[in-house]
Amino acid sequence: MCGIAGIIDIALRTRDDELRDIAERMASALRHRGPDSSGTWQDATCGIALAHTRLAIIDVSPAGHQPMTSANGRFVMSFNGEIYNHDSIRSELAHGMQALSWRGHSDTETILAAFSAWGVEQTLSKLRGMFAIAVWDREQRSLILARDRMGEKPLYYGWLGNILVFGSELKALEAHPLWKGDVDRDVLSLYMRHGHVPGAYCIYSGIKKLLPGTFFRFEADRAHSHVGTYWSLVNAVTAGVRDPFKGSPEEATDTLEAIMKDAVAEQMVADVPLGAFLSGGIDSSTIVALMQAKSHRPVCTFTIGFQERDYDESDYARGVAKHLGTKHVELILPPEKALETIAVLPQIYDEPFGDPSQLPTVLVAQIASKDLKVALSGDGGDELFSGYDRYARLEALIGRISQIGKPLRRTLGFGLKSVPPRAWDAALSPLLSAMGQQERSFEAGMKVHKWADMLALDWAEIYLVLMSSCTSPGSMVLDASEPLTVFTDPSRRALVNEIRQFATAVDLDGYLPDDILVKVDRAAMSVGLETRVPMLDPRVVAFALSLPKDLKVRNGQTKWVLRQVLHRYLPPALFERPKKGFSVPIATWLRGPLRPWAEALLDSNVLREQALLAPKAVARSWKQFLAGNNEMTVIIWNVLMFQAWLASTKRRAGIQQPALLLA
Predict the structure, then answer these.
(1) Contact 441/433 with Cβ under 8 angstroms?
(2) Which pLDDT score is estimated for 438?
(3) Single pTM value for the model
(4) pLDDT tens-place string over residues 215-230
(5) Nearest to 457 by CA among 394, 400, 406, 396
(6) Are 83 and 269 in contact (CB under 8 A)?
(7) 425 near 441, Cβ under 8 Å?
(8) Burial degree of 422 (CB within 10 A; 0-12, 13-18, 19+)
(9) What is residue 658's predicted lDDT score, i.e. its pLDDT?
(10) What is the DSSP letter of 424?
């Protein structure tokens, strides 16, 4: 795992020494991703420079140093990631070519040899792993950027005048002397809705993220670029629907266990200490169980717990670790440590990022990095095996709404919204009080309006509402309109005709790469820790997409076939419980010790000067939150994470800002 960066000056105005200096500055900004070594390569005749910071995992010798040139001299590459099947690729190359003389056993060298033998695009389709690649083809004078199928590794790119810049994180792009960094208001509205920046968008104008399964090719001589696809989630979902698994439940369990055993075994290969994150849930427990079955010594496992018992699941992880015999490390998080860490989150997540579970993820990565350089995680299980409770809520909601004719739904929705939320609060308060819910009666009116909005919507629109942190970002962001996403792009709505399958496909396309994988990658790489995700092995993904619904959800139990695999390693009492999620007591902290920090960031004078967020709308949301309206928690947290991020970017740029760090 590493950091990559680089530039192409198409005007050829940057001297060789300047190219090297800029590349070194960009690499320095990514030192946390690769603390073991760094390197640059440049060619002023083409205006190109590549930079690399190395976290040495496979072949830790100098033979794995990057940027690396292919044996035939044609390709120069800066590569971030791990290719788990690179040994089999070497074997395939040996059968089809004359005897190869390998300098070492790094997967970087394997990729370059494959590029030389098969070409870049064909090689990409053969790679089983996680990666972000920048490779310069000296023969064709072209740059190719590529990203792995599921989006585990990040890659940003864009233009600064005549200069193409790219890198693993925005920090590298910010290091270029021409960087400006203007916030894109339309993308900011997407962030306010989702709590993360989705798809190919970037918070900065003129910058994009390379989408999973795609490559970007720039031909220097023609100054021409295009984006292509070497793997498509849409095609993978369609293939699973067209050719579903037809075996018995027992055969499905056997097949899944065998595939996951292979995936875990491949991802346990490393020349450095390796372990796993363990929450005690089904996904991480399955990964750790398969790891321990493969290992001849106790696997190192790590978990985070909270002093607030309503949010603490460390007991479950401890029970799983004890049964499996792992070497378990546990940190019960005191509030003061959590609050201290919140101050550095905007520097770790170099786009605004509002998922509160980033906090425990950062902290578990910090404690794991003291003993490990590689950690496996269980991410992806909920999306692949239909584990989120919201899928059932979506099905139930659409089932109820579909019983009402469309004209009546519109009329009913209009009528419900004609009554202001406060009037609904007053009207429903006696009923809620009688039901013992008086403390939440103030949220009733907002919920009535939210459900009224959904009455006239289709599947995708209803799921968008369920997945929205803020359903009306236009009221929060000044002069903005929302671009298309996987929710609103009409071409995506015809993907499948079954509700739950549609929702999981949307999550695999959006929520997983844009939230979950961003959270884990930035948290771990901030401390030089590589994370691997066996659930996202292409074989696991393809098999999961082929499973019929009754093998994923049976008798109301989610992730049914995955649970059957885990039953073979753990007693059900250790993991069969209601899904809780990786939640954090944010509301309690914001009304308590975090309140001064929050109010400094939400100051109306600061907001007016920035002219990005609407001061009155923010103030209204904060007031409702302080009055006890927990519906506002996510909205407020997203605003705070944006404001803290914006302040951190100004500090990096040397612009004076108010003192907004936690005391």
Answers:
(1) yes
(2) 44
(3) 0.93
(4) 999 999 989 999 999 9
(5) 406
(6) no
(7) yes
(8) exposed
(9) 37
(10) H
pLDDT at 637: 97
Q: For tokens 């033998």, what's the residue? A: 117
Alpha carbon dihedral 451, 457, 463, 465, in 10-degree steps, equals -50
Closest CA to 53 of 75, 28, 70: 28
Which segments in the chain show pLDDT lower than 50?
438-442, 655-663
DSSP, residue by residue, 71-110: TTSSEEEEEEEEETTHHHHHHHHHHHSSPP--S---HHHH
CA distances from 560 to 95, 552, 565 (A): 42, 5, 9
CA atoms within 13 A on the CB side of 51: 30
CB 412 within 8 A of CB 406: no
Q: What is the DSSP letter of 311?
A: G
Helix (H) or strand (E) holding 43: strand 37-43
CA dihedral sign of residues 168, 174, 176, 182: positive
Distances (CA, A) of 83 to 109, 257, 273, 463, 599: 11, 22, 18, 35, 46
CA pair distance 135, 145, nearest whole angstrom: 7
**Residue numbers annotated as active site:** 2
Please give the Cα distance from 559 to 373 (Å, whole number): 30
**H or E segment at 277?**
strand 274-277
309: Cβ–Cβ under 8 A, 6 or more apart, which residues?
Answer: none
Over residues 80-114, the pLDDT tens digits come to 999 999 999 999 998 866 567 898 889 999 999 99
Q: Give the residue from 33, 209, 81 showing the smallest Cα distance to 532.
A: 81
Half-sphere exposure of residue 292: CA atoms within 13 angstroms, side-chain side? 24
